Protein 1
Amino acid sequence: SRLPHRSACTVGPASIRSAKGKGMSSSSSAAEQHGHHAVGGRELVPLAALIKEESRTERHAVTRSRICAREDGGVGGEVGEAETRRPLLRYGCAAQSKKGEDFFLLRTDCARPSTSSSSSTTSHPPTFAVFAVLDGHNGDAAAIYTRDNLLNHVLSAMPQGLSREEWLHSLPRALVAGFVKTDKEFQTKGQTSGTTATFAIIDGWTITVASVGDSRCILDAQGGAVSLLTVDHRLEENVEERERVTASGGEVGRLSVVGGAEIGPLRCWPGGLCLSRSIGDIDVGEFIVPVPYVKQVKVLL
Protein backbone atom coordinates (compact mmCIF):
# COMPACT_ATOMS: atom_id res chain seq x y z
CA SER A 1 0.00 0.00 0.00
CA ARG A 2 1.36 3.40 -0.95
CA LEU A 3 -0.18 5.42 1.87
CA PRO A 4 2.56 7.92 2.87
CA HIS A 5 2.86 9.34 6.36
CA ARG A 6 1.73 12.93 6.81
CA SER A 7 4.20 15.51 7.95
CA ALA A 8 4.16 19.25 8.48
CA CYS A 9 6.53 22.18 8.83
CA THR A 10 5.42 25.21 10.84
CA VAL A 11 6.96 28.62 10.14
CA GLY A 12 6.75 31.63 12.42
CA PRO A 13 8.53 35.00 12.52
CA ALA A 14 10.99 33.63 15.10
CA SER A 15 10.56 29.87 15.03
CA ILE A 16 10.50 26.80 12.83
CA ARG A 17 9.09 23.54 14.09
CA SER A 18 7.80 20.29 12.58
CA ALA A 19 4.80 18.16 13.48
CA LYS A 20 2.27 15.77 12.01
CA GLY A 21 -0.78 17.33 10.31
CA LYS A 22 -3.99 16.60 8.41
CA GLY A 23 -5.03 17.29 4.84
CA MET A 24 -6.53 20.20 2.93
CA SER A 25 -8.59 20.31 -0.22
CA SER A 26 -7.45 22.83 -2.81
CA SER A 27 -4.57 23.09 -5.27
CA SER A 28 -2.56 25.44 -7.45
CA SER A 29 0.81 25.34 -9.21
CA ALA A 30 1.85 28.98 -9.48
CA ALA A 31 2.77 31.73 -7.07
CA GLU A 32 -0.17 33.84 -6.00
CA GLN A 33 0.33 37.39 -7.22
CA HIS A 34 -3.05 39.05 -6.81
CA GLY A 35 -4.15 42.34 -5.35
CA HIS A 36 -4.98 43.03 -1.73
CA HIS A 37 -6.06 40.03 0.37
CA ALA A 38 -7.55 39.80 3.83
CA VAL A 39 -5.92 37.17 6.04
CA GLY A 40 -6.62 36.90 9.73
CA GLY A 41 -8.68 40.09 9.57
CA ARG A 42 -5.79 42.13 8.16
CA GLU A 43 -5.45 43.47 4.63
CA LEU A 44 -2.27 42.35 2.86
CA VAL A 45 -0.46 44.63 0.42
CA PRO A 46 0.66 43.14 -2.94
CA LEU A 47 4.01 41.38 -2.65
CA ALA A 48 5.81 43.53 -5.22
CA ALA A 49 4.92 46.71 -3.32
CA LEU A 50 6.08 45.18 -0.04
CA ILE A 51 9.42 44.07 -1.48
CA LYS A 52 10.01 47.52 -2.98
CA GLU A 53 9.15 49.22 0.30
CA GLU A 54 11.42 46.88 2.27
CA SER A 55 14.37 47.52 -0.03
CA ARG A 56 13.87 51.28 0.26
CA THR A 57 13.60 51.07 4.05
CA GLU A 58 16.76 48.98 4.26
CA ARG A 59 18.69 51.52 2.16
CA HIS A 60 17.52 54.31 4.46
CA ALA A 61 18.51 52.26 7.52
CA VAL A 62 22.01 51.76 6.08
CA THR A 63 22.36 55.50 5.47
CA ARG A 64 21.24 56.35 9.03
CA SER A 65 23.67 53.81 10.48
CA ARG A 66 26.58 55.33 8.54
CA ILE A 67 25.66 58.86 9.67
CA CYS A 68 25.45 57.75 13.32
CA ALA A 69 28.84 56.06 13.03
CA ARG A 70 30.43 59.26 11.77
CA GLU A 71 28.81 61.35 14.49
CA ASP A 72 30.06 58.94 17.15
CA GLY A 73 33.60 59.16 15.81
CA GLY A 74 33.61 55.54 14.68
CA VAL A 75 36.11 54.44 12.06
CA GLY A 76 36.35 51.63 9.53
CA GLY A 77 33.84 49.19 8.12
CA GLU A 78 30.84 49.70 5.91
CA VAL A 79 27.46 49.07 7.47
CA GLY A 80 25.25 46.67 5.57
CA GLU A 81 21.62 45.72 6.02
CA ALA A 82 20.31 46.72 9.41
CA GLU A 83 20.87 43.55 11.41
CA THR A 84 18.13 44.43 13.86
CA ARG A 85 15.59 44.27 11.03
CA ARG A 86 16.40 40.72 10.02
CA PRO A 87 14.33 38.00 11.67
CA LEU A 88 15.77 35.81 14.40
CA LEU A 89 15.29 32.18 13.40
CA ARG A 90 14.91 29.57 16.09
CA TYR A 91 14.44 26.11 14.67
CA GLY A 92 14.50 22.42 15.41
CA CYS A 93 13.04 19.17 14.15
CA ALA A 94 11.28 16.13 15.55
CA ALA A 95 9.87 13.05 13.87
CA GLN A 96 7.94 9.87 14.53
CA SER A 97 9.11 7.89 11.54
CA LYS A 98 8.46 4.17 11.77
CA LYS A 99 9.87 3.20 8.37
CA GLY A 100 12.87 5.52 8.20
CA GLU A 101 11.59 7.26 5.06
CA ASP A 102 11.18 10.81 6.41
CA PHE A 103 13.95 13.40 6.10
CA PHE A 104 14.52 17.09 6.87
CA LEU A 105 16.69 19.85 5.48
CA LEU A 106 17.71 22.71 7.78
CA ARG A 107 20.12 25.37 6.47
CA THR A 108 20.41 28.97 7.61
CA ASP A 109 23.61 30.02 5.83
CA CYS A 110 22.83 29.74 2.12
CA ALA A 111 24.59 32.48 0.14
CA ARG A 112 22.49 34.63 -2.17
CA PRO A 113 24.50 36.26 -4.99
CA SER A 114 23.48 39.89 -5.43
CA THR A 115 24.55 42.94 -7.42
CA SER A 116 22.28 45.49 -5.72
CA SER A 117 23.95 48.68 -4.54
CA SER A 118 22.81 48.23 -0.96
CA SER A 119 24.23 44.73 -0.61
CA SER A 120 27.43 45.14 -2.61
CA THR A 121 28.97 47.25 0.16
CA THR A 122 28.27 44.85 3.00
CA SER A 123 31.11 43.07 4.81
CA HIS A 124 29.16 39.80 4.79
CA PRO A 125 27.39 38.23 1.79
CA PRO A 126 23.58 38.14 1.97
CA THR A 127 22.18 34.83 3.11
CA PHE A 128 18.85 33.03 3.19
CA ALA A 129 17.52 30.02 5.08
CA VAL A 130 16.03 26.79 3.75
CA PHE A 131 13.75 24.41 5.66
CA ALA A 132 12.29 21.29 4.06
CA VAL A 133 10.20 18.26 5.01
CA LEU A 134 10.47 15.15 2.82
CA ASP A 135 7.99 12.36 3.59
CA GLY A 136 9.07 9.34 1.57
CA HIS A 137 7.07 6.26 0.65
CA ASN A 138 7.91 2.89 -0.93
CA GLY A 139 11.53 3.37 0.14
CA ASP A 140 13.78 6.30 1.09
CA ALA A 141 15.68 6.86 -2.18
CA ALA A 142 13.45 9.66 -3.51
CA ALA A 143 13.45 11.55 -0.21
CA ILE A 144 17.24 11.33 0.13
CA TYR A 145 17.84 12.37 -3.49
CA THR A 146 15.47 15.33 -3.13
CA ARG A 147 17.10 16.43 0.12
CA ASP A 148 20.54 16.35 -1.48
CA ASN A 149 19.74 17.90 -4.87
CA LEU A 150 16.60 20.06 -4.86
CA LEU A 151 18.25 23.23 -3.54
CA ASN A 152 21.02 23.08 -6.14
CA HIS A 153 18.47 22.61 -8.93
CA VAL A 154 16.48 25.61 -7.71
CA LEU A 155 19.56 27.82 -7.56
CA SER A 156 20.76 26.68 -11.00
CA ALA A 157 17.40 27.82 -12.42
CA MET A 158 17.93 31.38 -11.14
CA PRO A 159 19.45 33.95 -13.53
CA GLN A 160 22.78 35.40 -12.46
CA GLY A 161 23.46 38.93 -11.22
CA LEU A 162 20.05 39.64 -9.69
CA SER A 163 19.19 42.34 -7.20
CA ARG A 164 17.30 41.25 -4.11
CA GLU A 165 13.99 42.39 -5.60
CA GLU A 166 14.67 40.40 -8.77
CA TRP A 167 15.81 37.39 -6.73
CA LEU A 168 12.56 37.25 -4.78
CA HIS A 169 10.50 37.82 -7.91
CA SER A 170 12.27 34.93 -9.69
CA LEU A 171 12.05 32.44 -6.83
CA PRO A 172 8.59 30.95 -7.59
CA ARG A 173 9.49 30.09 -11.17
CA ALA A 174 12.90 28.73 -10.13
CA LEU A 175 11.24 26.52 -7.51
CA VAL A 176 8.91 25.02 -10.11
CA ALA A 177 11.86 24.36 -12.43
CA GLY A 178 13.89 22.86 -9.58
CA PHE A 179 11.12 20.45 -8.57
CA VAL A 180 10.60 19.28 -12.15
CA LYS A 181 14.34 18.79 -12.76
CA THR A 182 14.75 16.87 -9.50
CA ASP A 183 11.92 14.53 -10.45
CA LYS A 184 13.21 14.04 -13.99
CA GLU A 185 16.74 13.22 -12.87
CA PHE A 186 15.59 10.87 -10.10
CA GLN A 187 13.39 8.91 -12.47
CA THR A 188 16.40 8.11 -14.67
CA LYS A 189 17.75 6.04 -11.78
CA GLY A 190 14.94 3.51 -12.12
CA GLN A 191 13.93 3.69 -8.44
CA THR A 192 10.21 3.28 -7.69
CA SER A 193 10.08 5.22 -4.43
CA GLY A 194 8.49 8.64 -4.10
CA THR A 195 8.32 11.52 -1.67
CA THR A 196 6.37 14.58 -0.69
CA ALA A 197 8.42 17.77 -0.63
CA THR A 198 7.67 20.97 1.24
CA PHE A 199 10.45 23.47 0.64
CA ALA A 200 10.53 26.86 2.42
CA ILE A 201 13.00 29.64 1.62
CA ILE A 202 13.19 32.51 4.13
CA ASP A 203 14.96 35.65 2.91
CA GLY A 204 14.58 38.48 5.38
CA TRP A 205 10.86 38.80 6.09
CA THR A 206 9.80 37.13 2.83
CA ILE A 207 8.82 33.44 2.90
CA THR A 208 8.51 31.43 -0.31
CA VAL A 209 7.14 27.90 -0.07
CA ALA A 210 6.83 25.23 -2.76
CA SER A 211 5.21 21.86 -2.12
CA VAL A 212 4.01 18.60 -3.63
CA GLY A 213 2.16 15.99 -1.60
CA ASP A 214 0.60 16.58 1.80
CA SER A 215 3.41 17.84 4.07
CA ARG A 216 2.05 21.10 5.43
CA CYS A 217 3.74 24.44 6.04
CA ILE A 218 1.87 26.68 8.50
CA LEU A 219 2.56 30.36 9.16
CA ASP A 220 1.86 31.29 12.79
CA ALA A 221 2.07 35.09 12.74
CA GLN A 222 1.97 37.65 15.51
CA GLY A 223 -1.51 38.34 16.78
CA GLY A 224 -2.59 34.72 16.52
CA ALA A 225 -3.24 34.65 12.76
CA VAL A 226 -2.58 31.18 11.34
CA SER A 227 -2.28 30.66 7.58
CA LEU A 228 -1.57 27.62 5.43
CA LEU A 229 1.25 28.17 2.95
CA THR A 230 0.63 24.83 1.21
CA VAL A 231 -2.28 22.78 -0.08
CA ASP A 232 -2.57 19.01 0.25
CA HIS A 233 -2.44 17.01 -2.96
CA ARG A 234 -4.51 14.14 -1.59
CA LEU A 235 -7.13 12.64 -3.88
CA GLU A 236 -9.48 11.94 -0.98
CA GLU A 237 -9.96 15.63 -0.14
CA ASN A 238 -8.78 17.55 -3.20
CA VAL A 239 -11.57 17.78 -5.78
CA GLU A 240 -9.49 19.81 -8.24
CA GLU A 241 -6.76 17.19 -8.26
CA ARG A 242 -9.25 14.37 -8.79
CA GLU A 243 -10.64 16.22 -11.78
CA ARG A 244 -7.15 16.83 -13.18
CA VAL A 245 -6.17 13.16 -12.89
CA THR A 246 -9.38 11.84 -14.48
CA ALA A 247 -9.26 14.46 -17.26
CA SER A 248 -5.73 13.23 -18.07
CA GLY A 249 -6.96 9.66 -18.44
CA GLY A 250 -6.16 8.36 -14.97
CA GLU A 251 -8.51 6.36 -12.81
CA VAL A 252 -9.41 7.36 -9.25
CA GLY A 253 -10.92 4.81 -6.90
CA ARG A 254 -10.59 2.93 -3.64
CA LEU A 255 -8.90 -0.38 -3.04
CA SER A 256 -11.21 -3.28 -3.89
CA VAL A 257 -11.20 -6.41 -1.75
CA VAL A 258 -12.78 -9.85 -2.06
CA GLY A 259 -16.51 -9.52 -2.45
CA GLY A 260 -16.33 -6.17 -4.27
CA ALA A 261 -16.15 -3.95 -1.19
CA GLU A 262 -14.05 -0.77 -1.45
CA ILE A 263 -11.84 0.31 1.44
CA GLY A 264 -9.33 3.00 2.29
CA PRO A 265 -8.75 6.46 0.77
CA LEU A 266 -9.12 7.35 -2.89
CA ARG A 267 -6.08 6.41 -4.95
CA CYS A 268 -4.77 6.92 -8.47
CA TRP A 269 -4.55 3.80 -10.63
CA PRO A 270 -2.30 2.29 -11.78
CA GLY A 271 -0.02 2.36 -8.76
CA GLY A 272 -2.54 3.01 -6.02
CA LEU A 273 -0.95 6.24 -4.76
CA CYS A 274 -3.23 8.41 -2.63
CA LEU A 275 -1.29 11.56 -3.58
CA SER A 276 -1.73 13.36 -6.90
CA ARG A 277 1.64 15.16 -6.87
CA SER A 278 5.03 13.95 -5.71
CA ILE A 279 8.68 13.55 -6.68
CA GLY A 280 9.55 10.09 -7.96
CA ASP A 281 6.88 7.35 -8.21
CA ILE A 282 8.01 6.35 -11.69
CA ASP A 283 5.70 3.30 -11.67
CA VAL A 284 2.40 5.16 -11.19
CA GLY A 285 2.24 6.84 -14.59
CA GLU A 286 2.18 10.38 -15.88
CA PHE A 287 -0.86 11.40 -13.85
CA ILE A 288 1.27 12.00 -10.74
CA VAL A 289 3.16 15.23 -11.47
CA PRO A 290 6.04 17.04 -9.69
CA VAL A 291 4.77 20.58 -10.38
CA PRO A 292 4.55 22.27 -6.96
CA TYR A 293 2.05 24.64 -5.42
CA VAL A 294 4.02 27.85 -4.74
CA LYS A 295 3.14 30.65 -2.36
CA GLN A 296 5.17 33.72 -1.41
CA VAL A 297 4.25 35.93 1.55
CA LYS A 298 5.70 38.89 3.39
CA VAL A 299 5.60 38.80 7.18
CA LEU A 300 4.29 42.15 8.42
CA LEU A 301 5.73 43.58 11.63
Protein 2
Amino acid sequence: MNVVKCPRRVGAKYVSIASSKYAKPQQPIPLIFRAYPSPMHGISVCVGPLYGPEKKWLEIAEFIEHYKLIGVRHFYFTIFNMNEYTRKIMDEYTRTGEVELTVIQSEYANVDWQFHLLQINECHQRAKYHSKWVINADIDERLVMLNGTLQDLIRRQEQSISEINFAVQRVMKTDLLPEVYENDEQILREMIFTKYNISADVVWKAAKCMYRPEKTASMYYHWSYIKYPGYNAAWIGRNQGYFLHYRTTSATGIGSGWLDHANYKNFQERPNPITFANELRENVLRKIKYVYDRRILYCEELPDAVYQEYIVYGHETFHCKFKSEVENEQRKKLELENSTMISRK
Protein backbone atom coordinates (compact mmCIF):
# COMPACT_ATOMS: atom_id res chain seq x y z
CA MET A 1 0.00 0.00 0.00
CA ASN A 2 1.37 3.34 -1.06
CA VAL A 3 0.64 7.03 -1.27
CA VAL A 4 1.09 8.05 -4.92
CA LYS A 5 1.38 11.66 -6.07
CA CYS A 6 0.06 11.98 -9.63
CA PRO A 7 0.61 15.08 -11.82
CA ARG A 8 -2.49 17.06 -12.68
CA ARG A 9 -4.15 16.43 -16.02
CA VAL A 10 -6.69 18.82 -17.52
CA GLY A 11 -10.14 17.28 -17.84
CA ALA A 12 -9.41 14.20 -15.69
CA LYS A 13 -12.36 13.11 -13.55
CA TYR A 14 -11.05 9.84 -12.10
CA VAL A 15 -7.67 8.46 -11.05
CA SER A 16 -6.30 4.95 -10.68
CA ILE A 17 -2.92 3.29 -10.25
CA ALA A 18 -1.27 0.15 -11.65
CA SER A 19 1.92 -1.69 -10.78
CA SER A 20 3.22 -1.34 -14.35
CA LYS A 21 2.33 0.17 -17.72
CA TYR A 22 0.60 -3.02 -18.87
CA ALA A 23 -0.91 -4.19 -15.56
CA LYS A 24 -4.64 -3.94 -15.00
CA PRO A 25 -5.32 -0.75 -13.04
CA GLN A 26 -7.20 -0.74 -9.76
CA GLN A 27 -10.79 0.44 -9.44
CA PRO A 28 -10.73 4.18 -10.33
CA ILE A 29 -11.89 6.73 -7.77
CA PRO A 30 -13.34 10.18 -8.48
CA LEU A 31 -11.08 13.19 -8.11
CA ILE A 32 -11.99 15.82 -5.53
CA PHE A 33 -11.19 19.43 -6.35
CA ARG A 34 -8.68 20.77 -3.79
CA ALA A 35 -6.68 23.39 -5.72
CA TYR A 36 -8.22 26.39 -4.00
CA PRO A 37 -6.62 29.85 -4.49
CA SER A 38 -6.40 30.09 -0.69
CA PRO A 39 -6.84 27.32 1.93
CA MET A 40 -10.35 26.73 3.25
CA HIS A 41 -9.10 26.11 6.79
CA GLY A 42 -6.55 28.03 8.85
CA ILE A 43 -5.53 25.27 11.28
CA SER A 44 -6.45 21.59 10.95
CA VAL A 45 -5.29 18.34 12.54
CA CYS A 46 -4.05 15.22 10.76
CA VAL A 47 -5.03 12.56 13.31
CA GLY A 48 -2.94 9.41 13.53
CA PRO A 49 -4.67 6.13 12.61
CA LEU A 50 -6.78 4.44 15.26
CA TYR A 51 -5.84 0.87 16.09
CA GLY A 52 -5.83 -1.51 19.04
CA PRO A 53 -8.67 -3.21 20.95
CA GLU A 54 -9.83 -0.18 22.96
CA LYS A 55 -13.04 1.60 22.08
CA LYS A 56 -12.06 5.19 21.34
CA TRP A 57 -15.45 6.97 21.46
CA LEU A 58 -14.70 9.05 24.56
CA GLU A 59 -11.12 9.76 23.52
CA ILE A 60 -12.25 10.99 20.09
CA ALA A 61 -14.74 13.43 21.62
CA GLU A 62 -12.19 14.71 24.13
CA PHE A 63 -9.54 15.06 21.41
CA ILE A 64 -11.76 17.03 19.03
CA GLU A 65 -13.27 19.28 21.68
CA HIS A 66 -9.81 20.07 23.09
CA TYR A 67 -8.41 21.16 19.74
CA LYS A 68 -11.53 23.18 18.92
CA LEU A 69 -10.86 25.21 22.06
CA ILE A 70 -7.38 26.18 20.82
CA GLY A 71 -8.64 27.29 17.42
CA VAL A 72 -8.79 24.15 15.23
CA ARG A 73 -11.85 23.84 13.01
CA HIS A 74 -11.13 20.81 10.81
CA PHE A 75 -9.91 17.27 11.42
CA TYR A 76 -8.61 14.67 8.97
CA PHE A 77 -9.26 11.17 10.34
CA THR A 78 -8.12 7.88 8.76
CA ILE A 79 -9.83 4.59 9.59
CA PHE A 80 -8.47 1.13 8.92
CA ASN A 81 -10.65 -0.73 11.42
CA MET A 82 -13.25 0.69 13.83
CA ASN A 83 -15.96 -0.90 15.95
CA GLU A 84 -19.58 0.14 15.43
CA TYR A 85 -19.94 1.83 18.83
CA THR A 86 -16.97 4.15 18.26
CA ARG A 87 -18.12 4.83 14.71
CA LYS A 88 -21.23 6.58 16.10
CA ILE A 89 -19.23 9.53 17.46
CA MET A 90 -17.14 9.65 14.28
CA ASP A 91 -20.25 9.77 12.13
CA GLU A 92 -21.65 12.61 14.23
CA TYR A 93 -18.55 14.80 13.78
CA THR A 94 -18.56 13.95 10.07
CA ARG A 95 -22.22 15.02 9.87
CA THR A 96 -21.39 18.43 11.37
CA GLY A 97 -18.62 18.96 8.82
CA GLU A 98 -15.81 19.08 11.38
CA VAL A 99 -14.29 15.73 10.37
CA GLU A 100 -13.15 14.59 6.95
CA LEU A 101 -13.01 10.82 7.05
CA THR A 102 -10.82 8.57 4.92
CA VAL A 103 -11.64 4.86 5.12
CA ILE A 104 -8.87 2.62 3.80
CA GLN A 105 -9.81 -0.91 2.78
CA SER A 106 -7.02 -3.44 3.13
CA GLU A 107 -6.53 -7.06 2.20
CA TYR A 108 -4.76 -7.62 5.52
CA ALA A 109 -6.60 -9.16 8.48
CA ASN A 110 -4.74 -6.99 10.97
CA VAL A 111 -3.53 -3.41 10.44
CA ASP A 112 -1.28 -1.89 13.09
CA TRP A 113 1.11 1.01 13.67
CA GLN A 114 3.26 0.05 10.65
CA PHE A 115 0.57 1.69 8.50
CA HIS A 116 1.07 4.98 10.36
CA LEU A 117 3.30 6.43 7.64
CA LEU A 118 0.63 5.67 5.05
CA GLN A 119 -1.85 7.79 7.01
CA ILE A 120 0.65 10.61 7.61
CA ASN A 121 1.60 11.00 3.96
CA GLU A 122 -1.93 10.51 2.65
CA CYS A 123 -3.17 13.22 5.00
CA HIS A 124 -0.30 15.50 4.02
CA GLN A 125 -1.31 15.34 0.35
CA ARG A 126 -5.02 15.64 1.22
CA ALA A 127 -4.40 18.81 3.24
CA LYS A 128 -2.43 20.64 0.52
CA TYR A 129 -4.25 23.83 -0.55
CA HIS A 130 -7.09 22.81 1.77
CA SER A 131 -5.55 23.78 5.14
CA LYS A 132 -2.91 26.45 5.73
CA TRP A 133 -1.40 24.77 8.81
CA VAL A 134 -1.75 21.15 9.89
CA ILE A 135 -1.04 19.77 13.36
CA ASN A 136 0.42 16.26 13.23
CA ALA A 137 -1.01 14.51 16.30
CA ASP A 138 -2.08 11.08 17.48
CA ILE A 139 -5.39 10.54 19.27
CA ASP A 140 -3.63 10.46 22.68
CA GLU A 141 -1.76 13.76 22.19
CA ARG A 142 -2.98 17.25 23.15
CA LEU A 143 -1.24 20.50 22.25
CA VAL A 144 -1.38 23.04 25.10
CA MET A 145 -0.41 26.70 24.80
CA LEU A 146 1.04 28.39 27.88
CA ASN A 147 1.98 31.87 26.69
CA GLY A 148 -0.41 33.34 24.13
CA THR A 149 -2.64 31.63 21.60
CA LEU A 150 -1.74 29.26 18.80
CA GLN A 151 -2.84 31.93 16.32
CA ASP A 152 -0.45 34.45 17.92
CA LEU A 153 2.39 31.97 17.59
CA ILE A 154 1.67 31.43 13.90
CA ARG A 155 1.51 35.17 13.19
CA ARG A 156 4.98 35.65 14.66
CA GLN A 157 6.57 33.19 12.24
CA GLU A 158 8.47 34.36 9.16
CA GLN A 159 7.28 33.31 5.71
CA SER A 160 10.25 30.95 5.41
CA ILE A 161 9.01 28.82 8.33
CA SER A 162 7.15 25.74 7.10
CA GLU A 163 7.27 23.71 10.32
CA ILE A 164 6.84 24.48 14.02
CA ASN A 165 8.11 21.87 16.49
CA PHE A 166 6.97 21.37 20.08
CA ALA A 167 8.45 19.40 22.98
CA VAL A 168 6.47 16.57 24.58
CA GLN A 169 5.46 15.62 28.11
CA ARG A 170 4.62 11.97 28.64
CA VAL A 171 1.69 11.30 30.99
CA MET A 172 1.08 7.78 32.30
CA LYS A 173 -2.25 6.31 31.16
CA THR A 174 -2.72 3.28 33.38
CA ASP A 175 -6.25 2.08 32.59
CA LEU A 176 -8.31 1.10 29.58
CA LEU A 177 -10.90 3.46 28.14
CA PRO A 178 -14.57 2.74 29.02
CA GLU A 179 -16.43 0.30 26.80
CA VAL A 180 -19.80 2.07 26.67
CA TYR A 181 -21.52 5.15 28.01
CA GLU A 182 -23.19 4.65 31.40
CA ASN A 183 -23.92 8.06 32.97
CA ASP A 184 -22.62 11.60 33.37
CA GLU A 185 -20.53 10.73 36.43
CA GLN A 186 -18.68 8.08 34.45
CA ILE A 187 -17.76 10.55 31.68
CA LEU A 188 -16.53 13.20 34.11
CA ARG A 189 -14.49 10.55 35.89
CA GLU A 190 -13.02 8.87 32.81
CA MET A 191 -11.95 11.90 30.74
CA ILE A 192 -8.25 11.43 30.16
CA PHE A 193 -7.16 14.96 30.98
CA THR A 194 -8.81 14.83 34.43
CA LYS A 195 -7.99 11.22 35.30
CA TYR A 196 -4.24 11.18 34.64
CA ASN A 197 -1.67 13.65 35.98
CA ILE A 198 1.45 11.60 36.75
CA SER A 199 3.91 12.87 34.16
CA ALA A 200 7.59 13.08 33.26
CA ASP A 201 9.59 16.19 32.44
CA VAL A 202 8.90 18.06 29.19
CA VAL A 203 11.53 16.82 26.72
CA TRP A 204 12.41 17.07 23.03
CA LYS A 205 12.51 13.30 22.61
CA ALA A 206 9.80 12.37 20.07
CA ALA A 207 8.91 16.04 19.47
CA LYS A 208 5.81 16.69 17.34
CA CYS A 209 5.11 19.43 14.81
CA MET A 210 2.60 21.46 12.87
CA TYR A 211 3.47 22.27 9.26
CA ARG A 212 2.50 23.99 6.02
CA PRO A 213 1.43 21.17 3.64
CA GLU A 214 2.26 22.95 0.36
CA LYS A 215 5.75 23.90 1.61
CA THR A 216 6.59 20.37 2.75
CA ALA A 217 7.82 17.69 0.36
CA SER A 218 7.51 14.60 2.57
CA MET A 219 6.60 13.74 6.16
CA TYR A 220 8.02 11.26 8.66
CA TYR A 221 6.25 10.11 11.83
CA HIS A 222 6.75 13.28 13.88
CA TRP A 223 8.23 15.86 11.54
CA SER A 224 9.09 16.51 7.90
CA TYR A 225 12.24 14.97 6.50
CA ILE A 226 12.16 16.80 3.15
CA LYS A 227 11.25 20.47 2.86
CA TYR A 228 11.07 22.44 -0.35
CA PRO A 229 14.08 24.75 -0.89
CA GLY A 230 14.02 27.99 1.07
CA TYR A 231 11.91 26.73 3.98
CA ASN A 232 13.00 25.96 7.53
CA ALA A 233 11.70 24.68 10.87
CA ALA A 234 11.16 26.60 14.12
CA TRP A 235 11.46 25.12 17.60
CA ILE A 236 9.16 26.52 20.27
CA GLY A 237 10.32 27.01 23.85
CA ARG A 238 8.74 24.80 26.48
CA ASN A 239 7.45 27.87 28.29
CA GLN A 240 5.24 28.71 25.28
CA GLY A 241 3.61 25.37 24.60
CA TYR A 242 4.10 21.62 24.29
CA PHE A 243 2.27 18.35 23.63
CA LEU A 244 0.77 16.27 26.43
CA HIS A 245 1.11 12.63 25.44
CA TYR A 246 -1.18 10.33 27.44
CA ARG A 247 0.86 7.20 26.77
CA THR A 248 -0.41 3.79 27.82
CA THR A 249 1.68 1.90 30.37
CA SER A 250 0.41 -1.47 29.12
CA ALA A 251 3.16 -4.04 28.75
CA THR A 252 1.67 -5.15 25.43
CA GLY A 253 1.29 -1.69 23.89
CA ILE A 254 3.44 -0.15 21.17
CA GLY A 255 6.81 0.94 22.55
CA SER A 256 5.84 -0.54 25.91
CA GLY A 257 9.34 -0.08 27.33
CA TRP A 258 9.13 3.73 27.27
CA LEU A 259 8.83 3.99 31.06
CA ASP A 260 12.41 2.76 31.39
CA HIS A 261 13.78 5.13 28.74
CA ALA A 262 16.39 7.58 30.02
CA ASN A 263 14.57 10.54 28.44
CA TYR A 264 11.44 10.00 30.52
CA LYS A 265 12.23 10.51 34.18
CA ASN A 266 11.24 12.47 37.25
CA PHE A 267 7.65 11.20 37.17
CA GLN A 268 5.45 13.07 39.60
CA GLU A 269 1.95 14.46 40.04
CA ARG A 270 1.80 17.84 38.32
CA PRO A 271 -0.85 20.57 37.91
CA ASN A 272 -2.99 20.27 34.80
CA PRO A 273 -1.74 22.87 32.26
CA ILE A 274 -5.09 22.93 30.39
CA THR A 275 -6.59 26.34 31.19
CA PHE A 276 -10.04 25.66 29.71
CA ALA A 277 -10.78 22.50 31.72
CA ASN A 278 -14.33 23.43 32.77
CA GLU A 279 -15.40 24.34 29.24
CA LEU A 280 -13.80 21.18 27.89
CA ARG A 281 -15.70 19.01 30.37
CA GLU A 282 -19.00 20.63 29.43
CA ASN A 283 -18.41 20.30 25.68
CA VAL A 284 -17.35 16.66 25.85
CA LEU A 285 -20.24 15.71 28.11
CA ARG A 286 -22.75 17.49 25.88
CA LYS A 287 -21.50 15.72 22.76
CA ILE A 288 -21.35 12.28 24.40
CA LYS A 289 -24.87 12.59 25.79
CA TYR A 290 -26.20 13.70 22.40
CA VAL A 291 -24.74 10.63 20.67
CA TYR A 292 -24.94 7.88 23.31
CA ASP A 293 -27.55 8.79 25.93
CA ARG A 294 -30.51 6.85 24.56
CA ARG A 295 -33.96 6.25 26.05
CA ILE A 296 -37.09 4.44 24.94
CA LEU A 297 -39.76 6.12 22.82
CA TYR A 298 -42.93 6.85 24.78
CA CYS A 299 -46.12 6.14 22.86
CA GLU A 300 -47.50 9.45 24.14
CA GLU A 301 -44.89 11.22 22.00
CA LEU A 302 -46.26 9.84 18.72
CA PRO A 303 -48.18 12.32 16.53
CA ASP A 304 -51.90 11.61 16.23
CA ALA A 305 -51.69 10.26 12.67
CA VAL A 306 -48.87 7.89 13.62
CA TYR A 307 -50.66 6.89 16.82
CA GLN A 308 -53.63 5.69 14.76
CA GLU A 309 -51.24 3.35 12.93
CA TYR A 310 -49.90 2.23 16.29
CA ILE A 311 -53.42 1.24 17.34
CA VAL A 312 -53.64 -0.99 14.25
CA TYR A 313 -50.13 -2.48 14.17
CA GLY A 314 -49.05 -2.35 17.83
CA HIS A 315 -45.75 -2.19 19.69
CA GLU A 316 -43.76 -4.27 17.22
CA THR A 317 -43.97 -1.56 14.56
CA PHE A 318 -43.06 1.50 16.61
CA HIS A 319 -41.14 -0.03 19.54
CA CYS A 320 -42.73 2.43 21.94
CA LYS A 321 -44.02 2.03 25.49
CA PHE A 322 -46.54 3.96 27.51
CA LYS A 323 -45.14 5.77 30.53
CA SER A 324 -47.41 3.71 32.79
CA GLU A 325 -45.84 0.51 31.36
CA VAL A 326 -42.36 1.76 32.11
CA GLU A 327 -43.32 2.76 35.66
CA ASN A 328 -44.82 -0.68 36.29
CA GLU A 329 -41.68 -2.40 34.96
CA GLN A 330 -39.47 -0.25 37.16
CA ARG A 331 -41.62 -0.94 40.22
CA LYS A 332 -41.54 -4.71 39.62
CA LYS A 333 -37.76 -4.60 39.12
CA LEU A 334 -37.31 -2.74 42.40
CA GLU A 335 -39.58 -5.19 44.24
CA LEU A 336 -37.57 -8.11 42.85
CA GLU A 337 -34.29 -6.55 43.92
CA ASN A 338 -35.63 -5.89 47.41
CA SER A 339 -36.95 -9.43 47.79
CA THR A 340 -33.63 -10.83 46.60
CA MET A 341 -31.77 -8.78 49.20
CA ILE A 342 -34.11 -9.96 51.96
CA SER A 343 -33.69 -13.61 50.99
CA ARG A 344 -29.91 -13.24 51.04
CA LYS A 345 -30.02 -11.81 54.54
